[in-house]
Give the backbone structure.
Amino acid sequence: MKKARAAFLASLCALWASAARAAAPGVFTMGPARFTVLAPQCLRIEYSSAGVFVDDPSLFAVNRSARFLGYSVQESTGRLVIDTGEIRLIYTPDGKPFDAANLKAEIRRGNSAVVWTPGLLDTANLGGTRNLDEAKGPVPMPQGILSRLGWHVVDDSDGLILKNGWVAARPKGHGTDWFLFGYGLDYKAALRALTKMAGAVPLPRKYVLGSWYSRWWPYTSADYRRIVAQYHAHGFPLDILVLDMDWHTPGHWTGYSWNRKLFPHPKAFLRWVHAQGLHVTLNEHPQNYKTVDGHPIDGGVQPFEDRYAAFMRAMGRDPSLKQTLPFDAGSRKYLDNFIKYMHDPLEKEGVDFWWLDYWSGDPRYPLNRLIWLNEYYFRHSERGGLRGQCFARWDNWGDQRHPILFSGDTFILWPTLAFEVPFTADSAGAGAFFWSHDIGGYQGRRNGELLARWTQFGAFSAALRLHSTRDASLDKRPWSYSKAVEDSMRISYRLRSEFFPYTYTAAWEAHDESLPLLRPLYVEYPDKEPAYGNEQEYLYGDSLLVAPIVSPGRGPRKIGRQTVWFPPGDWYDWFTGEHVRGPLRRAVEKDLDSFPLYAKGGVPLTLQPFTERMGSAPLKTLVIRAYPGPEGVTGRAFLYEDDGVSRAYLSGARATTDISYFRKNGRVRLRVYPTKGSFKGQLKRRAYRVELPWRSAASRALLDGKPVKVEYSAREKMNRVLIPARSIRRGFILEVWLS
């Protein structure tokens, strides 16, 4: 009997092996198992006893048809070995679902390897992401794909799929659908594999990375005009106005009709906002989570809406009955008409994008998932060639395709700020590179020092967005606090504006290279143990080290302290110019006007003069600052540009300007190369201001071989060379002698 069973299994395995050989390139099927090579660091692993394999994209894996073909495969009777160069998977079918006896993967990790088998727990995961509603400090975090073990498995077995561009449930009998990421210590490669398969992180509209003013308060259009004037009078930049709950029909949690008492002339108001170089987003709650007498209100389109009758007729219903159709995001008819009648008219009036503030699933409608609604809104926002733009909470894997993410309603507490720093950086493990937090916290007691420190963090995150609940004491406008707090916040806001070209370039790298905007140190230094231990710091782009102060300071100047690990290399304090040579760990103390912000030596930084409209003002003067780097080593950087709002950047309508720095024997050679690429609205000419921090004035300087004046500030210890506007297609070489 045993011999007969063994013979049967052998013949079955032989049949499965022949099926594997006949499969499409990169896809291997052996009976109820199927394996797909997606990237050197990612394999799709499926098992279905019914033989039902899903080829449609899922809301997580939208690009799994893009395969990596640089693998080797060994097939023999009853055994399949796939080697991608990073993962060596071995499958020995035995008629049972995947387990440690029939499936394993050897993952290269440096000069050694680690072994994964089904059911093995990822015990050294570096974190994923979630929302922070009601957070008062650290909260449990789900896992991301980055792990010190060198591997992670994402289970997409129950994930919704897309059929003909619309959300759908998986077919019956679909079985197991895993994605094994194996990368050893190469976390950057892991993130590239994630975004290749799950979709690249889009570049947000440029102005979204700027300064936002948001507050849940019944402001009138006249109030907003005064607020904009106040931002200007107090010297604060502004890019976006957020109109919270009260813009729509009074007394309702949701709605798509203007509150005419607060906004008597909404079209004129929106025209005025755009004339100021500003943009507008409106708060909405497509489905209401409020209840009346224990029964949920379905939200959606209710009879009080201006366009209710048109919507109901489009749905084939009689509007005179005053019914409210339950919100159903899984219905193409419902959602298309919902957008057509409730959103399109407001967008034509001038609304730039929507704040999808709250929406919950409904067991009556299993396709109602926030990730699908985020996907749908993002697609809709691409109307007319615009760049897709969301502003919503995170739901699940795949939501990295819908920036910018809103982290939720947090409490005004120091532990909340302290947790937001590692939370934001570690979210890279889920591809969530662009988080917008309620700067200063959403609810709680007013705290000026905490707000100032939170603003310092916000200035070096994806969005500097003030927000608070409907509480008269929680007006976050800086000038409503003490002069010390206002002055501190002004410094942070101005830094945000001045660093904006650098920020936008780093945002492009997040899209193009899958490098997080806020980068955990272990992504850059995976072999350095301290990179895993200092969770209160991160790299902002390639060349800035940021360690926000997240605890109360002492004394009148609110001296705060933060422990900083300096990676190998030269680092310079942005505020004092102090030089620190890493690797080194030390405590840094800063008053309320500053915080640990360090620039990497020898690498040019791309900046701009302060502007009140950082997200839309043309870059007429490029400021290039380069701190001293190691002798004989070339440091490189680049400036990224596009039109800021369209999808044309995806088809090549963009430009880059390369910059290099070299220092040897007291001579600095900074080269700006001719700009490559073009886009609509591109400036043809640009001025430059080169800043070279040094302990003394330069002895001489040459611009393209001709003498040029150097200005020196003894107070700042800064050499500056001003270069008049010239064609961006004309590069230059600046040589400066520093003694």
